[in-house]
Design goal:
The protein is mainly β. The protein has no helices and 8 strands. Helix content is 0%, strand content 70%. The chain is globular and about 25 Å long.
Length: 79
């Protein structure tokens, strides 16, 4: 899956991932390969990214929106 995390200032993250855990407005949720299309609002919290190499990276956001479509994940976030 491709993941991009974009803030108004810059692109914070771009890369291939195996899993993403997001702080949804109604509770945290995860996205894996071939996830159903979704658009959701995000609250303040940590985006946990598991890369192809199994390295885990955490990025703090202050809220935003996520769109998942055809194994592409775009997070528009306030950081």
């Amino acid at each position: 899956m491709k993941l991009e995390i974009i803030t108004p200032e810059k692109k914070v993250y771009s890369g291939d991932v195996t899993a993403v855990k997001l702080p949804g407005a109604d509770g945290s949720f995860g996205i894996l390969n071939n996830h159903a299309p979704i658009i959701a609002t995000l609250k303040e919290g940590i985006v946990k990214i598991t890369e192809i190499s199994n390295k885990v990276e955490n990025i703090e956001i202050k809220g935003g929106v996520v769109e998942v479509l055809n194994n592409n994940i775009i997070v528009l976030a306030e950081a």
